[in-house]
Amino acid sequence: MLIAEAKRQAGERSQSLAKRPGQGRGSALNSVFMPRKAHQQGLGSFLPGQSCELFQAGITFLGPHFEGRCKDLELVRKSDADLLGAVVEGHPSHSAIILEAMIHPLPDELLRLPHRTDVPFPKLTTLGVGGICRWLFEPATEPEAQAFVRACARENLQYRVLGGGSNLVVLGDIETPVLRLRFPAELKRDGLKLTAPASFGHIRMAQGAADHGLGGMEYASGIPGTTGGALRMNAGAYGRELVDILDTFRFLTPQGELVEKRPEPGEFKYRWSFLTGGHVGLAFTVKLAEGDRDSIRAQVLENMGKRGSSQPLSKRNAGCIFKNPTGTSAGRLIDLAGLKGFRVGDAEVSSEHANFLINHGHATAAEFAELMEVVKAKVREMHGIELEPEVEIWS
Ligand code: EPU
């Protein structure tokens, strides 16, 4: 929130100064460049107790994406330890550069792509917690997605990739650009093969396969999110996973190179693929088997029903929170630890399935973070097993 407030103040100040450039140049615009580490850790934890006073004194903090645009600001490019000493006061040329950086916070080639600003994460995730998504880029075509990745690579800008937001716990504001594909929702059939763009609904794809009388994807009919998310996580259920039926997949490398290939050993494992760290899945093709349409549809419905009867789907959730440790079920371990119904604020361990944490409506990110820690500690204490998150955590 401190960062959000600083950015809001910076925006207001830059706009009013931009209207009066003469006064802006000479005015004492007090700013501190915030090093990447401070930004990642959160300003509050970096400068506990002091940041509020700095804000009240009118000092503005700039996020790490200003770094490339502030090359001349030697005075404020200090080590983290020197941050407090790096206040610019009454240096007109520095003020002007900072002002410019505030008005154009990201490269123009990025800002030309479809995007929105300050989107609340509760609207972008099924769990419904988290802060603000400062920059949400929503390319409608593969070339636009490629332009985004190339521009970020050139500027050395980090970004995150968002799918359906159904396997994600966001713990605060996210200042780095977020990419969410919005490709046309087209499912293409070619014989036994079915291709979907990464922004296509995963359950919709499983239903589409059934409508075509193609069997092999029934396991996926209860797994929410996008196909891109399913590819990234190698989503699975009932002992099956995406890589079992995956024929080819298309993706962008972190440098923006477009690749289409078949899966190879080691690229996909249980709830894991190599498509992390700036890779962007664009589309994939599955190879299915001809079958009886009615019985495939019946299986799809049965799987959806099974999930509905054992999982708390009527409450906001992020699916299974922890990975199943080898040979056992995380839900069972949490259940045996007596945690069903355990609550921190509005966040609760589901009484229906213990590996689901649910949001009763007003849960905060901090409550979820605390609940996850309690669950991990209790399972460690009772079973001697370290649970690992299955969901992605953004902070
Ligand atoms: N169990 C309990 N208590 C609970 C929950 C489960 O004792 O609160 C026991 C069940 O009785 C069963 C065993 O644990 O004997 C396994 O439970 P379940 O069949 O529900 O499967 P799971 O291992 O908990 C996995 C996936 C789910 C997927 C289901 C169905 C993971 C982490 N979870 O759950 O995937 O829907 O199988 O195939 O791999 C997800 O990925 O988000 C997810 C929910």
Blueprint (SSEs and pairs):
Elements lengths: L1 H18 L1 H6 L4 E3 L2 H6 L1 H4 L4 H6 L3 E3 L29 H12 L4 H4 L3 E6 L11 E6 L4 H14 L4 E2 L6 E3 L7 E2 L8 E3 L2 E5 L4 H10 L2 E2 L11 H7 L2 E2 L2 E2 L4 E7 L5 E4 L6 E2 L2 E2 L6 E8 L1 E2 L2 H18 L5 E2 L12 H7 L6 E2 L2 E3 L7 E3 L5 H19 L8 E3 L1
Parallel strand pairs: 1-2, 4-7, 5-7, 6-23
Antiparallel strand pairs: 3-4, 8-9, 9-17, 10-18, 11-12, 13-14, 13-17, 15-16, 19-22, 20-21, 21-22
Helix pairs in contact: 1-6, 9-11
The structure holds uridine-diphosphate-2(N-acetylglucosaminyl) butyric acid.
Q: If you had to describe this structure to a student in words, what would you say it looks like?
A:
The structure is a single chain. The protein is built from 13 helices and 23 strands. It folds into four domains: 2-103, no CATH class; 108-179, Uridine Diphospho-n-acetylenolpyruvylglucosamine Reductase, domain 2; 188-296, 2-Layer Sandwich (Uridine Diphospho-n-acetylenolpyruvylglucosamine Reductase, domain 3), CATH 3.30.465; 313-394, Uridine Diphospho-n-acetylenolpyruvylglucosamine Reductase, domain 1. Helix 1 packs across helix 6 and helix 9 (202-211) runs antiparallel to helix 11 (293-310). Mean pLDDT is 81; it is low at 1-7, 13-60 and 63-104. 33% of the residues lie in helices and 19% in strands. The site of uridine-diphosphate-2(N-acetylglucosaminyl) butyric acid has 17 residues, from helix 11 and helix 12. Uridine-diphosphate-2(N-acetylglucosaminyl) butyric acid is lined by residues 237-238, 307, 310, 319-320, 323-324, 329-332, 335, 353-355, 390.
